[in-house]
């Protein structure tokens, strides 16, 4: 019987030699992989720092606007209303008002930055600064920048323009600007400059990125952007432009131990541009260590045979010790399993025996597995709930296309979201009706009371993205600029702690929104999953509404084009003036009367509009001939349905009605033209056009004939029942005419 020591020595001799070289290769490949992996981790870490740094700066800018804009709005509005009531603005927004404004603004407590300077500006209707306490801006022409001056030109007297933070045109310092338009067309402006803003941005960047912080530019659309760090070279600008176009970091290696990372991060306050240096000294040390290990392993191979016996002995001893411990693990079953192994190695036989005993112990853990199964079943139930939500998402795009009315569409989305989003205290759906936000359905709030607020939908026009935000007590009303007189409703709205507002917008139009709210102290909480669901519905709504608007524009263009051609036909054949429109309306109304589908009714209308369009190819001397037509001339006129068919059959929008137009002069007895079709072989829509065409021709006054009265026309229709006209349609037509006149 062989011992483990003997087998180990033989195995080392056979296996060690062919394993050394592959292992060295693995170490080399591992060293290279480790380098690139560490490099990738470094880029990822710096990218995360950049985004966090951008978010911190955005929070500071946003805090400044939230702190000062409401106060400025209140002071401007109050001053304007005082002089509006007096009817004289000559003393409005004087130095007394400006001093009061400065005192009020400086009383606002803002821990992050302190106010450096507050200035005022008076701007003419042409955009020229004609009075200011900031001499550098005297005479500055603001209207040169059309993008900047556009909202000023569109403003009305009393309108407030509260901008985001911006930079001074001449100095590049960051200011918070506010404007109000006066009745004479001029503007009063204030600008608040904050102390140490640039230094604050630079210091925060150094704390975030350390020595790698090289360059940062924000507000880069302004004439004097804020810069931190070095001036950029041409290569810097090219790499930053590449990052901006690809919307991802750009990594450039500067050798084996140095690299540069470029990243452009957009935000509502401007565009942040970063250039960060990276060093890889630590990574290089790790790689050298791995390569050194490979070299040592190669050298060790030569000495392996010398130390093989010592190595095998040192390995066997721990295994033998482990064997003894396994023997004493559970000696109660030792006699039963002592002969179960077929191995010739004593140690292996013993280890196998002990392992069998441990397997027996494993069976005792079955109860624990049962508990785990119960937990898995609970997870399964949760997954089923997620699947149901997913199924709701899958059928949503198909159902959306069935709705043509925006009110019904928003109500459908509201019901779908209500079944998915459960952690909400209140939910509302509102639509934009004549620039007023009207709420049509909701839970948790009195809809009638909310509608009494008479909310202006214009304030929602800029909210084209899903809003998912938490608020402090009362901050929701400030941000949404709500003024509620009812104390009970005011207290309830002020307690809104969380909001998820899902807008229904196209590219340029706001239709309404679906909103979910939670009140403070309720315990409910909207999650990021709810936000993603809102993003999903908002995207589908936007795509649907844009397609709907495009289809309406396309239909209008098509309709105007066809009407223009009909007008041309009526100039060509004056005796048919108004005939096409009359036939179209009669056919459409009759189709609706007998219960045809909406699409068929629309097809009847367009077929009626263009049914005589082929006459434009008939010579005028034939159409307007005052005497009786010859057989050849009448045969030429009979070609006009075919002329129209040949044009429309190749037009995608009109191909469906081309056949109806071609056969509108066919007779039910088969004696019509152009193909002599009979009975039900004539398209159903063509049979309707035939009756409408004949009725209008009989009842309309023409230069060359006197129109029939209603009784005479009905008699004529009845005489041709089953001959020219479909007998069943004839009965329906007579009832239709009778009800139409009543």
What is the helix tally? 23
Strand content: 15-25%
- Kindly report the average pLDDT value: 76
CATH superfamily of the largest domain, please? PAS domain
Describe the sheet with the most strands. 6 strands, antiparallel
CATH class (first level) name of the largest domain: Alpha Beta
CATH architecture descriptor text of the largest domain: 2-Layer Sandwich
Round the Cα radius of gyration to an integer and report it: 42 Å
Global structural class:
alpha+beta
Low-confidence stretches: 331-341
What is the straight-line distance between the termini? 117 Å
Structure description:
The protein has 742 residues and is an alpha+beta fold. The chain has five domains: 1-196 and 281-327, 2-Layer Sandwich (Beta-Lactamase), CATH 3.30.450; 198-280, Beta-Lactamase, CATH 3.30.450; 333-363, no CATH class; 401-549, Beta-Lactamase, CATH 3.30.450; 573-741, Hypothetical protein af1432 (Orthogonal Bundle), CATH 1.10.3210. Helices cover 55% and strands 15% of the residues. It is built from 23 helices and 17 strands. Strands 1, 2, 3, 4, 5 and 6 form a six-stranded antiparallel beta sheet that branches. Strands 14-13-12-17-16-15 form a six-stranded antiparallel beta sheet. Strands 8-7-11-10-9 form a five-stranded antiparallel beta sheet. Helix 1 (4-86) crosses helix 6, helix 15 runs antiparallel to helix 16 (598-610) and helix 16 (598-610) crosses helix 21 (684-699). The longest helix is centred in the first third of the chain and has 83 residues, at 4-86. The N and C termini lie far apart (117 Å). Residues 331-341 have low confidence and may be disordered.
